[in-house]
Design brief:
Layout lengths: L8 H20 L4 H20 L3 H24 L5 H26 L19 H26 L11 H14 L6 H33 L5
Amino acid sequence: MAPSVFISEKNRARYLRIIEPVGNFFARAGVHPNILSISGLILSLLAGLLYSQGSFFWAAWVVVLAGTCDTLDGHIARQNNKHSSFGAFFDSTLDRYSDMFLFIGLAYHFSGGQTFLGFYENSTKPETSPWTVLVIIMAVAGSFMVSYTRARAEGLGLECKKGLMQRPERITLLIIGSLLGVIPVIGSLLLRLSLLVLAVSTNLTAIYRIIMVRRHFVRGNGAR
């Protein structure tokens, strides 16, 4: 994983120590890393469904499980020496779909979409907030551009992992906002604010990477 500003190395190491026994178990059982990647995708789809129904609390915990799967696939690949170029491509592609499922669910909820899973009695009622939907669209764009700028830079032979809002940070912020979203009266506002922070910070991260890449090529006389 790339160095992180938002998530300290100590907290990252603590999290990895917690899930490492699970990863070791799957590695010994011969579970293929792609199985974990696909499991993370399915869990993200479930989380998106929960978001669409206003079940922010449960959606947050499903996102935690999805993120754990996304971390474990790399651990298993290292343990069983199953690293491959396609595996990295496959994992990154599924991550983009996972992000999309989460944001689609949130957009559905804040566009006033009807609840269709009536057994979620504690769900937040559908809300109609065009501005929040716009913020979610900007968050989607920012999240995808953070990933795209890295991929494009690496395609030009330049490592580009700097910036505040990498994927672990984005997922962590979304989880925190979702848990805050269940607080009576102000929960919805807090979730919207976290989405706004996500939208702004992801796009700033993408812009920062553009500047860093340009500086690199200016120094190498490769700027356009």
